[in-house]
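// run 5 | inverse folding | seed 20
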């Protein structure tokens, strides 16, 4: 059953049209005839309400029957339909109770409370409550009570909010822009009417338009119409949900096989394990799966295949999936796969050079074939090692130039246990000392103009691949020539006094720089070798 099989009936269209005509006639103050017409329309709406309710009950019964036959397939859609039934019933009952409140506030008489001599004439207007009681409507033309309850007490606003909440609930089950969704949104529309300039341009709300200064019987008829709109929307939604039961089922126009292995790489001595299953499988029936003539144990529609890895290499395997078609025929579907078996091993390599250095982070890349990085446990015997993304940073704590006490060990978490994958020995050296330079030179001849263009002395690590910086913190300059003078700087910059002497240098003069100290990013302080230059 689909939504397109539940259009608005011709009968309901006629009733809706009559309601609009009667509402327009109220403006002409047509009294008793109009009230009588509203009574007739409300009676027709009540009859239609009962018809739609029986239709919905049939759909819900279809859900119950389908669920008994196949709970797994139907449960999702039946649960949604049950939610629709619960919310629809709650809103319809709320509106029926609102009718009762209006009628009783307007002097209505409950049949059960009337005297034994009370006789209800067939032509008298009545209201049947949600509990099945009969109420005599005494003042069909009452204009004050509906305005007082619906407008002043804001019952109309409360009703509007309930309709909006219900409309959004139903719309959540439908795709954005679908015709059915648009129809439901339109059918349960509670927006304020557009301003009509021909009628004075007065702004009216949805509540005022429908409930202010309207006779009681007209308000009751409108509420009946809203109940019909709710039930029609309910019909469309649950019909769509029922149609999804088969739409969500597997359609077997082409079948195939699939293999999911825990890992295609297995260590020697371990087991290879894989799940073999039929793609697009209907979980209401399970296939039979055979490997090498042996029927596999089934679990959740999948065959579990295990093979012990006794030697290294690549191994192929396969079998048959036997599946019963809807016609009852058994159709075989062959499958095949492969897995690799390797010996336990780990690859450990420094990412910079084949040695580690004291006082700095040493990037180390560790990998084990078939094992994810997060399942590796890496330790170092000298210092500490930290995780850095998928790699590691090693921090040796003492020198080990011969590589006798520094090793990195790799363990892996596999199948619930920890296994040793391998280890590697490393040498640990001190970071080489930097070289003092001026203009990139650490001695020799230097033009005076090139010397004057420099601001000071720099420390450089020659041919060192790590990103480590040193900065000169002090140095002395001795000037020779026609005079000898030594001046000091407490930074890497020439002092004003030093610059003054540099300006006075002549060709053939020499400068000698010693007592040079530099501090590195690793926190160490190093004395640097002296350097000298001859001015040309």
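// decoded
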């Amino acid at each position: 059953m689909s939504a397109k099989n539940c259009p608005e009936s011709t009968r309901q269209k006629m009733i809706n049209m009559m309601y609009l005509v009667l509402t327009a006639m109220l403006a002409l103050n047509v009294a008793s005839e109009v009230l009588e017409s509203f009574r007739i329309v409300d009676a027709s709406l009540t009859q239609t309400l009962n018809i739609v309710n029986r239709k919905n009950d049939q759909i819900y019964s279809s859900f119950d029957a389908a669920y008994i036959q196949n709970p797994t397939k139907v449960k999702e859609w039946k649960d949604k339909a049950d939610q629709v039934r619960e919310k629809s019933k709650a809103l319809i009952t709320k509106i029926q109770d609102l009718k009762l409140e209006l009628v009783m506030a307007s002097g209505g008489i409950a049949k059960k409370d009337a005297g034994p001599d009370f006789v209800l004439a067939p032509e008298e207007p009545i209201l049947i409550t949600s509990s099945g009681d009969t109420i005599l409507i005494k003042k069909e033309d009452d204009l004050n009570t509906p305005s007082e309850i619906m407008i002043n007490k804001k019952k109309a606003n409360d009703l509007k909010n309930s309709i909006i909440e219900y409309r959004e609930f139903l719309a959540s089950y439908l795709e954005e822009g679908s015709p059915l969704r648009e129809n439901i949104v339109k059918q349960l529309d509670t927006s304020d009417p557009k301003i009509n300039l021909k009628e004075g341009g007065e702004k009216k709300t949805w509540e005022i338009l429908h409930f202010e200064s309207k006779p009681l019987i007209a308000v009751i008829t409108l509420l009946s119409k809203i109940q019909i709109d709710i039930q029609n929307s309910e019909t469309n939604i649950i019909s769509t949900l029922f149609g999804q039961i088969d739409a969500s089922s597997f359609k077997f126009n082409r079948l195939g096989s699939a293999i999911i292995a825990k890992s295609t790489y297995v260590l020697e001595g371990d087991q290879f394990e894989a799940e073999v299953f039929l793609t697009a499988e209907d979980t209401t029936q399970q296939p039979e799966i055979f490997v090498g003539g042996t029927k596999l144990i089934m679990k959740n529609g999948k065959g579990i295949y295990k093979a012990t890895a006794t030697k290294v290499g690549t191994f192929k395997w396969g079998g048959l999936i036997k599946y019963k078609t809807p016609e009852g025929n058994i159709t075989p579907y062959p499958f095949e796969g492969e897995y690799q078996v390797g010996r336990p091993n780990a690859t450990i390599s420094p990412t910079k050079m084949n040695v580690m250095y004291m006082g700095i982070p040493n990037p180390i890349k560790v990998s084990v074939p078939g094992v994810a990085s997060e399942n590796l446990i890496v330790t170092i015997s000298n210092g500490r090692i930290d995780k850095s993304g998928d790699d590691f940073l090693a921090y040796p704590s003492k020198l080990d130039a011969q590589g006798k006490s520094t090793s990195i060990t790799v363990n892996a978490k596999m199948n619930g246990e920890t296994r040793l994958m391998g280890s590697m020995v490393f040498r640990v050296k001190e970071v080489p000392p930097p070289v003092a330079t001026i203009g990139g030179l650490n001695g020799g001849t230097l033009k005076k103009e090139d010397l004057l263009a420099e601001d000071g002395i720099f420390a450089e690590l020659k041919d060192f691949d790590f990103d480590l910086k040193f900065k000169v913190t002090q140095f002395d300059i001795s000037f020779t020539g026609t005079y000898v003078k030594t001046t000091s700087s407490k930074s890497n910059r020439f002092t004003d006094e030093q610059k003054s002497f540099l300006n006075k240098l002549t060709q053939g003069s020499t400068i000698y720089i010693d007592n040079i100290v530099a501090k590195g990013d690793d926190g160490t302080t190093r004395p640097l070798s002296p350097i000298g230059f001859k001015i040309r």
